[in-house]
Specification:
It contains twelve helices and 14 strands. By secondary structure, the chain is of the alpha/beta class.
Length: 346
């Protein structure tokens, strides 16, 4: 099998060494070069033509976000952001994912001997990602305007969305279509702990509804979107008369905590045919079984199509298992959710 050729970009020699050691544990990955800043990295990209770049968020001469934007404009390729687990690091990582980075990993705060254990799998996945230039990503297809608060009347359904690799860009595209009085919406996005808070804050700033990390016991309300906190627990929806969020500690499911399967399955049990399940871009199969439970319970189910997915993994498995009722390009999914939850469809 052909090796995935990786360029490691980080201003810390120690961190470059940790990343290299982690990647070279996998015989299908070759670290072909290292760079201490974007100026060195630019020359290395020209000389080595890597398949994947790991890129530090904070570096001298030009920060990682600025360099990423140049890459995505001039020479799009798969980039994995490596960030500190701080508030500023989380905010920068969300901006990078929005700008076109494929995925992100957190720098270890301790336990360096086990650092970056998931990175080889992420790198190999990234090598097959569909990466578009920033110019193409900004082109908006021509579709009707989304429902305005004055015309949108919620029919009582609950929306559950699952996403992984490429999910930040996908979630923004979907949620920007929602009016302020959108249906109660719960989301599990695979992301390291501490980064989901930055994602929720970013979505809250740019979307009409209120977006926040889910809190254990929070009641579902119209006009609110609840994002599963990264790393700590599974987000589930429970309750008979009044639905609320439950953060349940437990083992990882399909390698993830929080898991999309856990969210979807709980919504299927809690609301049955009054649910709408949506599975977006991502690696693996998390969410397929839970979405099938939702569809079998009578819920409406949507999946992102291959052409618009950064990684057509989770949506593909869900579609092949019969869990997806309709498969759509990303640009249509937000409006389809609104159409499925209008009062006229009750």
């Amino acid at each position: 099998m052909k090796s995935v050729r990786v360029l490691v970009v980080d201003d810390s020699a120690t961190m470059r060494g940790l990343i290299r050691v982690a990647l070279e544990r996998d015989p299908e990955i070759a670290v072909i070069g290292q760079a201490a800043d974007p100026l060195e990295a630019r020359q290395a990209i020209k000389a080595l033509n890597p398949d994947v770049i790991t890129l530090d968020v904070e570096m001298p001469n030009m920060n990682g976000i600025e360099f990423l934007e140049k890459i995505m404009r001039l020479r799009p390729m798969p980039v994995i952001m490596v960030s500190s687990q701080t508030t500023s690091g989380g905010d920068a990582t969300i901006r990078a994912l929005e700008a076109g980075a494929v995925d992100c990993v957190a720098k270890p705060s301790r336990g360096f001997e086990e650092a970056f254990g998931d990175l080889p799998a992420i790198v190999k996945m990234a090598a097959g990602a569909f990466v578009r230039s920033s110019a193409l990503r900004r082109v908006e297809p021509e579709f009707p305007s989304p429902a305005k608060p004055s015309s949108y009347v919620h029919d009582g359904r609950v929306v559950a969305i699952g996403a992984s690799t490429g999910g930040v860009e996908a979630l923004i595209a979907v949620l920007k279509e929602f009016p302020a009085n959108c249906p109660p919406t719960v989301i599990t996005q695979h992301m390291p702990a501490n980064f989901t808070r930055s994602l929720a804050q970013r979505l809250d700033r740019i979307c009409a509804p209120s977006v926040s990390e889910a809190i254990d016991g929070a009641e579902l309300e119209q006009g609110r979107i609840y994002l599963a906190p990264g790393g700590a627990a599974h987000l589930e929806i429970v309750g008979a008369r009044r639905l609320h969020c439950r953060l349940r500690a437990g083992e990882a499911i399909n390698g993830h905590r929080p898991s999309v399967d856990a969210l979807f399955a709980s919504v299927g049990r809690a609301v049955g045919e009054k649910g709408v399940g949506v599975i977006l871009t991502g690696m693996g199969r998390d969410g397929a079984a839970g979405l099938l439970e939702m569809r079998n319970a009578g819920a409406r189910t949507l999946g992102q199509n291959e052409a618009s997915s950064v990684i057509y993994g989770m949506p593909r498995v869900a579609y092949e298992w019969g869990a997806v009722e309709r498969q759509l390009p990303l640009a249509r999914i937000g409006r389809e959710i609104l159409a499925a939850t209008l009062m006229c469809n009750a």
